[in-house]
Amino acid sequence: MKRMQSAKKALAIAAVCCGGLLFAQPALSEPGVTDDTILMGSLMAVSGPPSLMGKAATSALKVWQEDVNANGGINGRMLKLITADDGYVPARTRQMAKKLIENDKVFALVGTSGSSHLLAAMSVIDKHKVPAINTMAVNSAHFNPPRDSVFVAGATYCQEIEIAMTYAAKNLGKQDAKFVLIYQDDEFGKDMKCGYDNGIKNNGLADVGQFKFKRGQKDFSAEILKAKATGANVLISGGIVAEHAIFLKEARKIGWDMTLIGMHGAHLSAVQALSGEADNGYYTADYVPPLSATDIPGVKKFMELSEKYLTEKELKGLNRYALSSYAAALMMEHAMRECGKELTRACVIQNLENMNGFDV
Fold first, then answer.
1. 266-298, pLDDT tens digit by residue?
2. What is the Cα–Cα distance from 99 to 93, expressed in whole angstroms?
């Protein structure tokens, strides 16, 4: 599994972006902290289009909570976790953030939703200086400008796509290919475009077209026809989940022979299954190993704990978002443990900022 490094060192594996002078307060005055409990929150899309991502991440947090509590909690305090479903609607993400932080009084957020969704909740998180780790949608906009208490673990979409395009040029024989981008018209899409533009510029590749689509759109026949008409033979897929498979099917339907490259959402087995026989020439960029990679100690431990604490249905719903969510939870746990009994938000933020080379 991956390691967390400071954003000030500009490493792609995990960006940690925060700053400011921090002052500790007595632990008992901290929201969500009592002598024997710590109340944590998460903002997840467990309904709506990308629910298979949010459900997997939520299951991972369940595994983490159960295991921590079975082993005495964090410095003697048991974890309680509230998950709020935003349905993948940014306005609802903000509402749920206010509920968790201002009404439920959670100590920290150990999971957040999509790109535009976290941005919608950012003012609430910033106002209360709540420690938050995001692994669901690692977007450059989440730390540009830097935030005092918000951390992200993983490569950004911009970094992922640029690296994938570099790989395609150098290892897949695509240096002289014609590239086209189809991307979503929101903050997620902007970060995908960032990676695409960087990949074109830094590798000297040919950009023959860029086309937007609306979030929630189901029919992509027009976009695929336009993309094919450019003469492109490599499509950078700016979709989140199902769009990758739909692009492939539409392309094969009209006889467009091309290579598709997508971000890590395209790695999900459900997406690959949806593409069916059209998945020849289908590549994904990811920084998380597959669940089957149990030769990696962290993956092996997670899968063993999942077998212990999850239902059969929850086990079947696990995917790469479970691993990234679990890794983020371990980072948050480590930062809290380092505070000892005097647990404060300021202390956790400082520990997350100082975290370097953490092996999960």
1. 777 776 666 665 556 788 888 899 899 999 999
2. 10
Listed in order, strand segments (DSSP E) in 204-307 are 206-213, 234-238, 259-262, 282-284
Topology (CATH level 3) of domain 157-284: Rossmann fold (3.40.50)
Q: Which CATH superfamily is domain 3-155+292-359 in?
A: Response regulator (3.40.50.2300)
Q: Which sequence spans correspond to the domains of the chain?
A: 3-155+292-359, 157-284
- pLDDT at residue 191 is higher than 70: yes
Give 290-299's long-range contacts (Cβ < 8 A, gap of 24+). Answer: 290/320, 291/318, 291/319, 291/320, 291/322, 291/323, 296/1, 298/1, 298/327, 298/359, 298/360, 299/1, 299/323
DSSP summary character for residue 279: G
pTM here is: 0.81
Spatial separation of the C-alpha atoms in residues 321 and 315, rounded to whole Å:
13
Tens-place pLDDT, residues 92-147: 999 999 999 999 999 999 999 888 888 899 999 999 999 999 888 787 777 778 88
Q: What residue ranges in 132-278 does DSSP mark as E strands?
A: 132-134, 150-152, 178-184, 206-213, 234-238, 259-262
SS3 (DSSP) at 60: helix
Q: How does pLDDT run across 4-43, given as a tens digit for each residue?
A: 333 332 323 333 333 333 333 444 579 999 999 999 999 9
Q: Do domains 3-155+292-359 and 157-284 have the same CATH topology?
A: yes
